[in-house]
Specification:
With about 300 residues, this protein is mainly alpha-helical. It folds into two domains: about 90 residues, Orthogonal Bundle (DNA polymerase, domain 1), CATH 1.10.150; about 180 residues, Intergrase catalytic core (hpI Integrase, Chain A). The protein is about 55% helix and about 5% strand. It has 14 helices and three strands. It has a three-stranded antiparallel beta sheet. A hairpin with a 5-residue loop joins strand 2 and strand 3. Helix 2 crosses helix 4 and helix 6 packs antiparallel against helix 8. The radius of gyration is 23 Å and the shape is globular.
Length: about 300
């Protein structure tokens, strides 16, 4: 099997069997493509089955000269995923990535906005602009329900249940979850749908997609990043922010106000509670309250 057919089959596997999003598939294929380019320059082998461990190790060594530990971890993960699939598909036992170690990564605390900064961000939106009410509804939805940016751009009107104040979200791997809709998000989404989206241009292919651009088509992830960056600048917020910042702020503010980690995990769509636990490390008040409530030597009187 040559590289072209192997990559084509692997792409189908990621889409159909693993149910990954288009963006995730692009990232996986990007890592494989980087290795193929290196391999074609440095070897004369024609097939993935000819690759040896030392050749992958040489590629990793070369890449590590100019890439961060995070980038290298993703590269190695992508290569391991591809060769695991290739070996399974071709009933092959030798895995050239078996001895390749993934760099250990430190856990970086995400950037979070304070409630005051959230208010400043929301207030920076010009509602006289033709897309102002749409933009406000976008930010209220990101912060009010903690959605990922890919979940936001794929949100459909048919998955909004206003009476119950619930959003049905299609998350990673096409997994579905129900997320409460915040009161402010509900209000501004309804205003956008009834007063602004209804009178704008709507491409028939995107008639059920909630947030549309001026041409009536689905917004891109890049556009949401651009909007958030613009509003952050207008609000004079010095932190580096993105759509994910609003998601992190959603979880952190819930925790600060007494929500438990398990509930936050469900709403965020985290597969493992360990992913959610990072917010506990960010909130020292939460950690202090756990200590005060549960440690046997919590109180001392002199």
């Amino acid at each position: 099997m040559n590289w072209k057919s192997a990559i084509k089959q692997y792409q189908s596997y990621l889409k159909i069997e693993r149910g990954l999003s288009g963006n995730s598939i692009i990232n996986y294929l990007f890592d494989i493509d980087a290795f193929i380019k290196y391999y074609k320059i440095n070897t004369d082998k024609k097939s993935p089955k000819d690759i040896k461990s030392d050749e992958i190790q040489a590629f990793i060594y070369e890449e590590a000269k100019h890439k961060s530990s995070n980038s290298m971890a993703r590269r190695i993960s992508g290569l391991k995923s591809f060769f695991n699939y290739f070996n399974f598909k071709n009933n092959r036992k030798y895995d050239p990535t078996a001895l390749i170690e993934t760099p250990k990564l430190g856990r970086k605390l995400p950037e979070v906005l304070s409630i005051l900064e959230i208010e400043k961000l929301l207030s920076s939106i010009d509602l006289t602009h033709s897309q102002g009410h749409r933009n406000l509804a976008i930010l209220e939805t990101l912060y009010g329900s903690g959605l990922r940016v890919s979940e936001l751009v794929n949100l459909t009107i048919s998955n909004l249940f206003f009476k119950e104040k619930i959003i049905k979200v299609i998350g990673k791997g096409n997994k579905q979850r129900l997320v409460p809709m915040g009161d402010y998000a509900k209000k501004h989404v309804e205003i956008y749908i009834e007063k602004y989206r209804a009178i704008g241009k709507i491409n028939p292919l995107y008639s059920d997609v909630l947030f549309l651009n001026r041409n009536g088509k689905q917004l891109t992830r890049a556009m949401i990043f651009t909007l958030i960056k613009k509003f952050g600048s207008q609000a004079r917020i010095l932190k580096t922010i993105s759509p994910h910042t609003l998601r992190h702020s959603f979880a952190t503010h819930l925790l600060e106000n007494g929500a438990d980690l398990r509930t936050i995990q469900v709403m965020m769509g985290h597969e493992s509670i360990t992913t959610t636990e990072i917010y506990a490390h960010m909130d020292t008040k939460y950690l202090r309250s756990v200590m005060d409530n549960f440690h046997p030597r919590k109180n001392i009187n002199f």
